[in-house]
Write a structure and sequence with these properties.
The complex is a heterodimer of chains A (361) and B (298).
Chain A (H helix, E strand, L loop, with lengths): L2 E11 L7 E12 L4 E5 L6 H9 L6 E6 L2 E2 L10 E4 L11 H10 L9 H14 L15 H13 L5 E5 L7 H18 L2 E6 L2 H7 L2 E6 L2 E6 L1 H6 L4 H6 L6 E8 L2 E4 L2 E5 L5 E7 L4 E3 L5 E11 L2 E7 L9 E5 L11 E6 L4 E5 L7
Parallel strand pairs in A: 3-8, 3-9, 6-7, 7-8
Antiparallel strand pairs in A: 1-2, 1-4, 4-5, 9-10, 11-12, 11-14, 12-13, 14-20, 15-19, 16-17, 16-19, 17-18
Chain B lengths: L1 H33 L2 E2 L10 E2 L2 H8 L1 H34 L4 H9 L6 H12 L8 H8 L12 H29 L3 H9 L4 H29 L3 H7 L3 H4 L4 H10 L6 H29 L4
Antiparallel strand pairs in B: 1-2
Helix pairs in contact in B: 1-13, 2-13, 3-7, 3-9, 3-12, 5-10, 7-9, 9-13, 12-13
Classes of the chains: A alpha+beta (361), B mainly alpha (298).
C-alpha cells in the first residue's frame, strides 16, 4: 500500500514550559511507493518516532493528512488502519507464550472477521515460519534471545497481514553480530511479504544497507529523500553529507574565487559557481595521494583496520570534529615530504555547500 | 576459607538472630507447649496433665465459636471487597491527569490517621446517643427509613459497620500499591494492544491484570492475614467487652482469655492462638497454590 503524507505537522506543548510549543514534525510531504522498504533516518530527538506514531495513529497530527493508498486515514483510530507495529523494546507480553503472543491480534477480531481456531493456528504458524521461530512456540519471551524476541514481535505484527508494517528502532537492542543477521532477516521478510515497511533508525549504515529509500530528518524537518546511494552521492545539504557515511565526511572551510575552489591557499577544483564563502565536504574515499597534488595536509599517521588503510592528517581549514581521515588503496604510494602530504581530489566525492544556508551548490 | 567466611556471616547475623530467637521462636514454642498443658495455673506454674482438653474446651466454647464466625465473615467480606474497590479506584486514578495528586492524597489520608480517631469519626457517623441519631441514621430518615442502632443494635448492623470500617481503613494502602503497580506497566503494551484492536475489557483481563498480578497477590495474602488478626478496629467501634456485644474476634478471644474479665487462662489462649495459626497457614497455602497458575512474575 502506498503511503502519502501531506503537510503533516505535529506540535507538542513543552513539558517544562507550557507556553512553549515544540514542533516534532514540521510540514512533511512525501509519498512512499507500494511495497518498498523505507528507512527513516536521523539523530535522536529529530521526530522519527513521532512520525511513525502519526502514521500508525497513536498520535493525532496537529495539521496535515495521511493517506494509505487513496484512503484518508488521518482521523482513523489505530486499530482501523491495518498497520502492524514493532516497538523498540518489542513489547511482547511476558506472561504469554510465543504462540499466544502471535495469536493475540487474531483473537481480537470480532463479528464477521472472527476466525476459527484452525485458521488462527494456521496463520500463527505461517507467521512464525516466515520469521523462523516455529520451533520455539511454547516458550515465554524471557526464554528467548534478543533476536528471537525481535522476530516474535515481527510475527505478531504480521499475523493480521497489515497493509503497512512499522518498525521503531528494530535493531538498536541487539548486539553487533545479531544486528547484521536481523537486518538481513527484515530485508528478506519484507521482500517475501511485499508489505510497505517503514523503519526508524539513527544508524545510517543500517538504513543504507537494507532500504529501498531513505528519508533523512533533522529537527522535525525532512532533509532529503531518495535511494540510499543517491543520497550518499548527492547530499542536498551539509547535514545530510555529514550524517551519512563512515568514516564521516571531512568538512573544510573555503571559498570560491574566479570559478576556482580554494581551501586555504590551495586551489583544489574548478567550478561554475559564483564567488562566495563555502563549506567543502570531501568523502574519505575522495582523495588520491599524488606527490604533485594541489591539496596539502600535514601527515599524522597511517591506520590499518582490516582491509582499509587510512591516512590520518591535519589541515587548518578542517572544521570536522575529528582529524581528516582518508581511505586509500593499500598499494597506493604515500608521498610524505617533510610531514606534508599532497592529494588530488575526486570531483564527484567533493561537495560544495553555501556558507549561508548550508545547501549544496 | 569458606568456613571462616561462613562463621563471619553468622556473626553478623547474630544480633538479629538473638532477637528473633528470644522474642519470636521461644514464645512460639512456649505457646505450643502451653496449649497442651491442662489446668495450667499461672500463679503456681503447675498443671495437671498433658492433652487436648484445652482445644476441646475452646472448640465447645460458644464465645470462641462466635469469634471464629465473626472473623470469617469479616475476612470473606472485606478482603475481596477492599481489593476490588482499591483496584477500581486505582484504575480511575491511573486514567485521569488533572487533580490526580489531589485525589491520591485524599485517598491516602486514612492511612496516616490514628485508628482511635477514626473510630471516633465512625461513632459520630453511626452511634445513636441521647443527643443525636448519628449521621447515617439522619440520612436514612431523610429517605424514609427508620433509625437503626448500628453500635448496639442487631448483629447484621454491627457487622455492617465493622466491615465498612475495615474496608475503609485498609483501602489507602491497597490503592497506593496498586496505583504504583499500574503506573509501572510499560505503556508500549497498551500501544501494541491498541494497534491490534484489542477491546478495553480484553486489555484489562489479558494485559493489565497479569501485569499487576504480583502486587494483587501480595495484597490478597496480607489482606487475609490482616483481617484474620482483626482486633483493635473492633475495640475502637464496640468497646472492650466484645463477648457481650457478640462481636469478638479470634484475636480478641485470645486477649480476653489472657487479660480480660474472664482472663487468666494462658492455656486456652494458646490453644485459640494455635487454631488461628492453623487457619491462616491453610489459607495462605491455598493462596500460594492458586497463585502458581495465575501470578506472573517477570
Amino acid at each position: 500500500m502506498k503511503i502519502v503524507l501531506e503537510h503533516l505537522t505535529k506540535q507538542f506543548i513543552s513539558r517544562h514550559n507550557s507556553s512553549e510549543i515544540v514542533t516534532a514534525v514540521d510540514d512533511f510531504n512525501f509519498e512512499i511507493p507500494d511495497g518498498k522498504l523505507v528507512g527513516l533516518l536521523g539523530p535522536s530527538g529529530c521526530g522519527k518516532s513521532t512520525t511513525l506514531n502519526l502514521i500508525c495513529g497513536l498520535e493525532v497530527p496537529t495539521e496535515g493528512k495521511i493517506y494509505f493508498g487513496d484512503l484518508d486515514v488521518t482521523d482513523l483510530p489505530p486499530e482501523n488502519r491495518g498497520v502492524g507495529m514493532v516497538f523498540q523494546n518489542y513489547a511482547l507480553y511476558p506472561h504469554l507464550t510465543v504462540r499466544q503472543n502471535i495469536m493475540f491480534p487474531l483473537e481480537n477480531l470480532k463479528g464477521e472477521q472472527k476466525l476459527s481456531k484452525e485458521v488462527m493456528n494456521e496463520k500463527v504458524l505461517e507467521a512464525a515460519r516466515l520469521v523462523q521461530i516455529d520451533t520455539l512456540m511454547e516458550r515465554k519471551p524471557s526464554e528467548l534471545s534478543g533476536g528471537q524476541q525481535q522476530r516474535v514481535a515481527i510475527a505478531r505484527a504480521l499475523v493480521k497481514t497489515p497493509g503497512v508494517l512499522l518498525l521503531d528502532e528494530p535493531l538498536s537492542n541487539l548486539d553487533a553480530r545479531l544486528r547484521l543477521q536481523t537486518r538481513e532477516q527484515i530485508r528478506r521478510i519484507q521482500k517475501e511479504t511485499g508489505i510497505t515497511t517503514i523503519f526508524v533508525t539513527h544508524d545510517q549504515e543500517e538504513a543504507m544497507s537494507i532500504s529501498d529509500l531513505i528519508i533523512v530528518m533533522k529537527e522535525g524537518m525532512m532533509q532529503q529523500m531518495g535511494k540510499p546511494q543517491e543520497v550518499y552521492n548527492h547530499p542536498a545539504n551539509l547535514f545530510v553529507a555529514k550524517f551519512l557515511g563512515t568514516p564521516a565526511i571531512n568538512v573544510f572551510e573555503g571559498k570560491i574565487l574566479n570559478h576556482k575552489v580554494y581551501i586555504g591557499e590551495d586551489m583544489i577544483l574548478d567550478t561554475d559557481a559564483e564567488d562566495q564563502e563555502i563549506y567543502i565536504g570531501i568523502r574519505p574515499e575522495g582523495f588520491i595521494p599524488d606527490k604533485n597534488g594541489s591539496f596539502r595536509c600535514r601527515f599524522d599517521r597511517i591506520e590499518t583496520t582490516g582491509r582499509d588503510t587510512s591516512i590520518v592528517c591535519h589541515n587548518d581549514s578542517c572544521i570536522s570534529d575529528s582529524d581528516i581521515r582518508v581511505i586509500v588503496d593499500s598499494d597506493d604510494e604515500i608521498n610524505n615530504d617533510n610531514g606534508i602530504i599532497r592529494f588530488n581530489l575526486k570531483a564527484n566525492k567533493t561537495h560544495l555547500f553555501s556558507k549561508k544556508d548550508e545547501k549544496v551548490i | 576459607m569458606y568456613n571462616r567466611n561462613n562463621l563471619k556471616g553468622w556473626l553478623y547475623l547474630l544480633p538479629a538472630l538473638a532477637f528473633v530467637v528470644v522474642f519470636m521462636v521461644y514464645p512460639l514454642i512456649d505457646v505450643f507447649i502451653y496449649s497442651f498443658e491442662e489446668s495450667y495455673n499461672f500463679a503456681s506454674q503447675t498443671y495437671t496433665g498433658i492433652g487436648l482438653y484445652n482445644y476441646s474446651y475452646i472448640l465447645h466454647d460458644p464465645y470462641f465459636l462466635q469469634a471464629v464466625k465473626n472473623t470469617f465473615i469479616l475476612v470473606i467480606i472485606t478482603v475481596p471487597l477492599s481489593t476490588g474497590i482499591a483496584l477500581l479506584i486505582s484504575l480511575a486514578l491511573n486514567s485521569i491527569k488533572k487533580l490526580k495528586d489531589l485525589f491520591q492524597t485524599v485517598f491516602f489520608l486514612p492511612y496516616v490517621t490514628n485508628t482511635l480517631a477514626v473510630g471516633l469519626v465512625f461513632m459520630i457517623l453511626f452511634k445513636k446517643t441521647a443527643y443525636s441519631e448519628g449521621l447515617i441514621n439522619l440520612l436514612l430518615n431523610s429517605i424514609g427509613i427508620s433509625s437503626i442502632d448500628f453500635i448496639e443494635g442487631p448483629y447484621w448492623a454491627k457487622m455492617f459497620v465493622l466491615c465498612f470500617y475495615t474496608v475503609w481503613v485498609v483501602l489507602p494502602f491497597k490503592i497506593l500499591i496498586l496505583t504504583s503497580a499500574l503506573a509501572s506497566v510499560n505503556k508500549d503494551y497498551y500501544n501494541v494492544a491498541r494497534i491490534d484492536g484489542t477491546s478495553k475489557l480484553r486489555i484489562f483481563t489479558r494485559i493489565t491484570l497479569p501485569m499487576i498480578s504480583p502486587s494483587l497477590f501480595y495484597l490478597i495474602i496480607t489482606g487475609f492475614i490482616g483481617a484474620f488478626k482483626a482486633y483493635s478496629d473492633v475495640v475502637a467501634l464496640f468497646g472492650t467487652d466484645l463477648n457481650a456485644a457478640g462481636m469478638n474476634t479470634i484475636v480478641g478471644y485470645v486477649y480476653d482469655m489472657l487479660y480480660g474479665n474472664s482472663g487468666g487462662y494462658p492455656s486456652f489462649a494458646s490453644a485459640a492462638a494455635l487454631v488461628l495459626f492453623a487457619i491462616v497457614l491453610t489459607i495462605t497455602v491455598i493462596n500460594l497454590l492458586v497463585s502458581r497458575k495465575n501470578v506472573h512474575y517477570q
